[in-house]
Specification:
- With about 675 residues, the protein is of the alpha/beta class.
- The protein contains 17 helices and 18 strands.
- The chain folds into 3 domains: about 50-375, Catalase HpII,  Chain A, domain 1 (Beta Barrel); about 445-525, Up-down Bundle (Hemocyanin, N-terminal domain); about 530-655, Rossmann fold (3-Layer(aba) Sandwich), CATH 3.40.50.880.
- The strands form 3 sheets. Strands 1, 2, 3, 4, 5, 6, 7, 8, 9 and 10 form a 10-stranded antiparallel β-sheet that branches. A 6-stranded parallel β-sheet has the order 15-12-11-16-17-18, sandwiched between helices. A two-stranded antiparallel ribbon has the order 13-14.
- Helix 3 (about 155-160) packs antiparallel against helix 4 (about 180-185) and helix 5 (about 190-200) packs parallel to helix 10 (about 445-455).
- The longest helix is centred in the middle third of the chain and has 17 residues, at about 345-365.
- It is an enzyme of class 1 (oxidoreductase).
- GO terms for molecular function: catalase activity.
- Its EC number is 1.11.1.6.
- This is Catalase.
Length: about 675
Amino acid sequence: MTNKKDQNLEAFRKSNDGEAMTTNQGLKISEDENTLRSHDRGPSLLEDFHFREKMTHFDHERIPERIVHARGYGAHGEFQAYEDLSEYTYADFLTDTNKTTPVFVRFSTVQGSKGSPDTVRDVRGFATKFYTDQGVFDLVGNNIPVFFIQDAIKFPDLIHAVKPEPHNEIPQGGSAHDTFWDFFAQNPESTHTTMWAMSDRGIPKNFRQMEGFGVHTFRLINRNGEAHFVKFHWKPKQGLESMVWDEAQIVAGKNIDFHRQDLFEAIEKGDYPEWELGLQIIPESDEFRFDFDILDPTKIWPEDEVPVKIVGKMTLNRNVDNVFAETEQVAFHPGHIVPGIDFTNDPLLQGRLFSYTDTQISRLGGPNFHQIPINRPVTPVHNNQRDGMHQMNIHQGQTAYHNNALNHNNPHTTPPEQGGFEHYQEKVEGHKIQKRSDSFKDYYTQPRLYLNSLTQPEFDHTVAGFSFELGKCAETSVKQNAVNQLNKVSRKLAERVAENIGVSVPKDNEEVQLEQSDSQLTMEKFKRPLRGHSVGIIVDGNLSRDTLKAYAQVMVDNQLNYAFISDKPRNIEEDFGITETFDTVHPTLFDSLIILAESESIFDKTEEFAELTYQHFKPLVLNENAKKALSNSRVDTSQPGVLTSETPETIVQAFEQPRYWNRN
């Protein structure tokens, strides 16, 4: 028998249509798309209890693995500025050209767990910790310059959508499933970043040949208190390269650790990867000069409108001693800044300023995670924060408060003119409101610009990326809605994807035709030095020691990574031999292939290696016997990038292009 209170409660529940969204305290929510801010382009307000509750719960969902970016790998290095940037900032690592600043960088995937493969299609994290003489500065970015959402309150929704679906925990490490593409179709702000992720940028060849971006708009402040808006870029000096999708899938099965192994081995052998730091800078007076909002994290600043100024170089030159102690325990936070750098009202950045510390407290067991060696600044730490879980310091003295007279008011504050941090004094006014600025509402112009900047092979790969991912969805409505969204960007893209996945081509739209743009600097425009590329050399038969040593010498002279491959390992000399077999390696693990055949009769595996290398558009060098032996294979030896030669130097000529996309 139910009492009157229970009956009233049941009647109240039934009076609502569907499920009303509430806080964890049962309070109905009227807005779940935007954080509370001072006005529609203003800073977020701490009193937004719904945002804080939603983000706090999200940050504590899983322990101890990172909720996102769990699969990561890191290395130590250093940064040095090329020029004095005192005109823009008084951050010491950007103004003193004689100063070498230690750094730690962690690369990562977003979606997968710690055990997921390196080569999945995903956005890659590119987080850099600068140990400056003014404190720690963390540049916590990605390999794609924009993000899926505009407001941090949407971050739990994005990650819930892209993570393995909760009813079956499938798929691991990728976005090819219904919930992500349902999110994409229902949240058009995600269009731009998704376009990048489905292009070649979503499957980088390795960490060394990957761009990095700070994503957000920050401020640089100079000694006179003058501010400029800034975006941060990392430009790889190794060039920019990706895999083809078939290759990425094979490598995931052949070597789940392909990216981390590549970085580890490059540093171990002294082939230190380098990136140049670039800044895009906009004076405060030009904040509203553009046809996009510079605070919108789903928008780039086109480089033909705001050029990238190269200001310094980072070199990674030391591997970690212990992956757990360093790579897993490193704690990044976009709120770790130094004098001369400050925030803007970018609504995604504003939310991250809360979220990251909250996450680290949960994941690393308490508020003292900054005392873990990898997180310690190089500057002394003095404050009145005491005790807490995992406290490592033994604090001495009677006082732990400010102001005090018993300890001569130590630790004391420092005036800005003596190096103390001072927030930029931005005038803020407006009504408290949960609304997004209308200037954020153009969701399709920049994705269209990105597509128009791609070469034809890159465009074709993007079609294939969308087709594979949407083809894995089970719900026809999800596929159709996603293609409808693509149609707002490109009729051509929508038609090709719709045909590939078996849904209707949307009614024609009035697509705005844009001129070809150079603003994205597509992958084909990056210079690719020869150094560091990998070469597989198949030894099919008994070739002379002198022949093999000549090939090895050319590889060493050109700083190429190489391995001799045959049916079985053979020592030719004490320090020189055939170290790999057809069973221990795979053609997808190399950037090119040389086949040295003793006769016109070759192993079946030699032919298989040649065909896969050819299929993936990579350079292929054959001696005369190998060319004749492959005459009945799927390798067309007349096609670009297939060279016939008896001399090892031909590999240098073959690498004029890393991929020969014009191959039939």
